Amino acid sequence: MALSEKTIDETTKNLSLPFSVKNALVSDLKKVNVSKKELEEIIERIMDIYSYSTIEPCEAAGVVSAQSIGEPGTQMTMRTFHYAGVAEINVTLGLPRLIEIVDARKKPSTPMMTVYLAQEYCNDRDKARELAWDIEATHISHLGSISTDISEMTLTIDLNEKVIIHRNITPAEIAQKLEDELGVSIVVEDNRVIIRPEKESYRELLQLVKNTQNVTLKGIKDIKRVVIRKEENIGEYVLYTEGSSLKKLEGMGGVDMTRTITNNIHEIYEVFGIEAARNSLIKEATDTLREQGLTVDVRHIMLVADIMTVDGEVKAIGRHGISGEKASVLARAAFEVTVNHLLDAGIRGDIDELRGVTENVIIGQPIKLGTGHIDLVAKQNPR
Amino acid sequence: MHLKIPDGRGFKSLRARLLFIQGMNVIMNNSGNFSLLDHQLIPHHMVLSEKEAAQVLKEFSSLQPIEKEQLPKIKSTDPVIMEIGAKVGDIIKIIRKSQTAGEGEFYRLVIE
What we know:
Oligomer: heterodimer
Largest sheet of chain A: 4 strands, antiparallel
Helix content of chain A: 40-55%
Strand content of chain A: 5-15%
CATH architecture of the largest domain in chain B: Alpha-Beta Complex
Strand content of chain B: 15-25%
Shape of chain A: flat
CATH topology of the largest domain in chain B: Eukaryotic RPB6 RNA polymerase subunit
Mean pLDDT of chain B: 78
Number of helices of chain A: 18
Low-confidence stretches of chain B: 1-10, 24-32
CATH class of the largest domain in chain A: Mainly Alpha
Number of helices of chain B: 3
Low-confidence stretches of chain A: none
Radius of gyration of chain B: 18 Å
Helix content of chain B: 25-40%
Number of domains of chain A: 4
Largest interface: A-B, 35 and 30 residues
Number of strands of chain B: 4
Shape of chain B: globular
Strand order of the largest sheet of chain B: 1-3-4-2
CATH architecture of the largest domain in chain A: Orthogonal Bundle
């Protein structure tokens, strides 16, 4: 007799299996008719295979992960600056990028955002283009040429009309912005902006040229360039930006913030929190390895990401992060800057509990791993 | 969208209240505001009641008893924690999407 779906659901509900395995099991069970006895046998066998596939107790999971990421790491190219699939945008890849990720740098060497667009924008190239100009930082050098007149002591900007229309900015807006930022008097004549320094000196004028070039007239300051691309697989226009600034993007209309991401993990941590940072670490590390044609099981990367985020903030692997916080003096001294650790510990009078692996290797005791972690007591037969 | 409607707003019925929330959501979606919790990188967070928290600790205590301080941490300044309004000492249940297990549960303790 075939079992009803309800019985199947109830019998499988309390099995300690991962979500995906359980789902596959239930959906397959519902397709084929099984009897109660068969069901029990299926479950028993699955539980056997599952427990066989789980990691052994006392296995050194961290070392296995370190080796599994480290070995493919040796095959990575040392220095690659690639245009990673993204047109014209320069992204650090390969080993330098992987090091950047595990070092939890505050700012990556090539920050980049992937900006997804809201529904009414994502299929319209013109609207996407417009938004791109709103995001990209516009400087005066983009809009026209600057010349200085020493006899008149003025600075003249000849604006390129086409570019101004293209970038959707008026000479009056430019003048207003420059006035706010520089605090000098400005005269606008058609497509010409004339600026006069406060004091009439040559040095002042040169300084003014420099300052004028640094003013962000439009867009977000940190974003140097925006590239629009139509992603074929989702059929939408997506913006890629050189430079990253999620916070400033947040209030902008037309941006789908629920999908927009950056490769700056610290920024993700600050804007979206620790769990998002963990997801981002996994994504960035996997992508970097995959781009180099290396396949590392995601479990190893997940373990690294978990240990980096376990205390509620993104911590580096290494001296300033995880390894520098080990409880044992000997373990820390064995890693880097040996003398400093021993000296500090001596001054403070630290005690080493010898619970870890490294310190026990150093002093020549059995380590607590694998079979070494289990104490056996012989049961004596009374004669 | 996640909205907090203050109590005592004087809705005549539950339906009116729901319609209000729906309307607000439309307005907020159009104005470009977004709820942090909708981001694809952020898994679902929820605050556990004291009873649930005790149950979780009990589950992890099968070999040796553990305290909640031994759980992984999350800062009270974390954007998601501020959004859901959890307090220091709460245990947060996180339902992660996992590439290997499909879905996984994770727990964090809110710290200063």
